[in-house]
Amino acid sequence: MIYFISDAHLGSLATEHRRTQERRLVRFLDDIKDKAEAIYMLGDMFDFWYEYKHVVPKGYTRFLGKVSELTDNGVEVHYFTGNHDIWAYGYLEKECGVILHRKPTTVELHGKTFYLGHGDGLGSSNRSFRFIRSVFHNRVCQKLFSWLHPDIGVKFGLNWAFHSRMKRKDGKEVPYLGEQREPLICYSKEYLKEHPDVDYFIFGHRHIEIDFMLTKQSRLLVLGEWISLFTYAVFDGEHMFLENYVEGDN
């Protein structure tokens, strides 16, 4: 089995029961550890993650410990950076054993072609978001941020993420926009024109579930989130399923 999850936003100040949320994610990983051939985490597993030279954000010990256990036992864990956890500089790879991806990646799994990524910036025409994204990815800006004391830098990052979320109505994700307006659907359609062999496009970022047939062969999945939906996808080598995690069912 190959599993796909994204957008836990661990540590988010907008999540009331943060420890409970982390434990639920860890229980899910524990439930699948003997079945998983690989796990793809498609970004924003943390609400803010910045690795200083000798310091990483406080907390997340249960999650990081479970990821380390999985990789120690031979499960491939692929971690894609999102727009909240861009700033990974070796800790997750060296200490937890993940395979880090900074850009969308095409992989072959059991004879099927998958295009995988977090999804931020793909197909979006939002200029303010694209500008902020370019700042976050800028190496000079990243270096300047590292000069902030971690107590200041991490607090700033978590508060930035919180206020960014609260700008939305009631802090909720924008509902499904329809086939013609959903950026990830539009992007995937354009990408298929040059790469018609892709069987599955799988993204996070959007915080809603989308299961959309682009063509008779190609299918798009947006994974939802691990804040209130607790959704994930699983590929058994032949079929793909979009599931909701209910403790005790696995």
Low-confidence stretches: none
Number of helices: 7
CA-based shape:
globular
Q: From the alpha-carbon coordinates, what is the Rg to the nearest angstrom?
A: 18 Å
In spatial order, strands of the major sheet run 4-3-2-1-10-11
Mean pLDDT metric:
88
In total, how many beta strands?
11
* SSE string, helices as H and strands as E: EHEHEHEEEHHHHEEEEE
Main beta sheet: strand number and arrangement? Answer: 6 strands, mixed
Class by alpha and beta content: alpha/beta
β-strand percent reads 15-25%
Q: How far apart, in Å, are the first and last alpha carbons?
A: 13 Å
**Helix proportion:** 25-40%
Structure description:
With 250 residues, this protein is α/β, with parallel strands linked by helices. Helix content is 32%, strand content 20%. The strands form two sheets. Strands 4-3-2-1-10-11 form a six-stranded mixed sheet, covered by helices on one side. Helix 1 packs parallel to helix 2 (61-72). It is globular.
